[in-house]
Write a structure and sequence with these properties.
By secondary structure, the chain is an alpha/beta fold. The protein has three domains: 105 residues, no CATH class; 53 residues, no CATH class; 141 residues, Trna Endonuclease, Chain: A, domain 1, CATH 3.40.1350.10. The protein has 13 helices and six strands. Strands 1-6-5-4-3-2 form a six-stranded mixed sheet. The longest helix is centred in the N-terminal third of the chain and has 43 residues. The mean pLDDT is 88.
Length: 309
């Protein structure tokens, strides 16, 4: 009986693999078809400069193509195909790790840096279309950028630089509270909201995060201290310690986390790990304080959001 069962499993698994291969092949072919359709549309409009303004031709083509092939070739989709070509014409091919459904949400974004960010975000995190929509809706790009220099960010420039924590830390960090009504917030409750929605917070923190534990106990002399949240990031090859504060940033918050980071560097991390990073997540950052913190200490505010986000 086991032999037959195992043979059935092999057949099913082989079919799953074959279907997936076919889906990838179809997606690649579809994207290149739409890329080439976009190229022809631009040429028919007289080149890239005129293509930005002349939409009459696309309207005529869409009316005829919709009658023959259905609404997949309506005015909006043809316009997106043109945008697909204009976006990738310099490299001559389309990034095939995204589906057309992903591109339909990204192509309306005209800012190159912002568009590159969401493309790379989908690739690095393997986002579904629904997850991508939520990231755009929740202003993930704007919350990441803040006052950072775009040139520093690998997510945006898609360069050969090593990814850093700057590619990940958003401000504010969104913490889901479901449908709960919050009358009085405590640090314990804030931690519970995070732990109850750990998958969301991992995505919110950025690529490569793995949850290690909460209230991690460390022994200092004859007493014990407890670190709110500990993560490991395999992209950065380091531990990331997070302390939660429900009030505005205070000087003592910086000192506390600097101590925890030094402890982890001396007592926990291995020689092949990079330096531990600390993040304070507080009600409000005070840059007049945070700018004097250690270079491996970062500060971000939080925002409580319901299920709609």
């Amino acid at each position: 009986m086991d032999k037959y069962y195992n043979n059935i499993k092999v057949l099913i698994e082989n079919n799953i693999i074959e279907v997936k291969k076919q889906e990838i092949s179809v997606n690649n072919h579809t994207l290149m078809t739409y890329f080439n359709v976009g190229k022809l549309l631009v040429e028919a409009q007289g080149g890239e400069t005129r293509a930005k303004y002349g939409n009459g031709l696309i309207k005529r083509y869409s009316n005829k193509l919709t009658l023959e092939y259905g609404k997949g070739y309506d005015y909006t989709n043809l316009s997106r195909m043109r945008d697909l070509y204009l976006c990738f014409q310099k490299v001559g091919t389309v990034c095939q790790q995204l589906s057309w459904s992903h591109y339909r949400r990204i192509l309306p974004i005209k800012n190159d840096s912002k568009r590159n960010y969401y493309i790379n975000l989908v690739i690095e995190n393997r986002l579904s279309v629904r997850q991508l929509i939520n990231e755009i809706k929740n202003n993930s790009y704007e919350r990441l950028i803040g006052d950072k220099d775009n040139i520093e960010l690998k997510y945006i420039n898609d360069n050969s630089k090593q990814m850093t924590i700057l590619d990940m830390i958003k401000d504010p960090i969104l913490i889901s509270i479901g449908n709960t009504k919050v009358d009085r917030l405590t640090e314990k409750a804030l931690k519970c909201y995070i732990l109850d929605n750990i998958e969301k917070i991992l995505l919110e923190l950025g690529v490569g995060f793995s949850f290690v534990g909460s209230e991690k106990k460390i022994k200092v002399g004859d007493s014990y201290r407890y670190i709110d949240l500990v993560f490991f990031n395999y992209k950065l090859n380091c531990f990331v310690l997070i302390e939660l504060k429900i009030n505005k940033l205070d000087i003592k918050d910086i000192g506390q986390l600097e101590f925890y980071v030094r402890y982890y560097n001396d007592e926990i991390k291995e020689d092949f790990h990079n330096t531990t990073i600390g993040i304070i997540v507080c009600k409000k950052n005070d840059k007049s304080i945070s700018k004097y913190g250690d270079s491996n200490i970062y500060v971000s505010s939080y925002e409580l959001v319901g299920d709609s986000k």
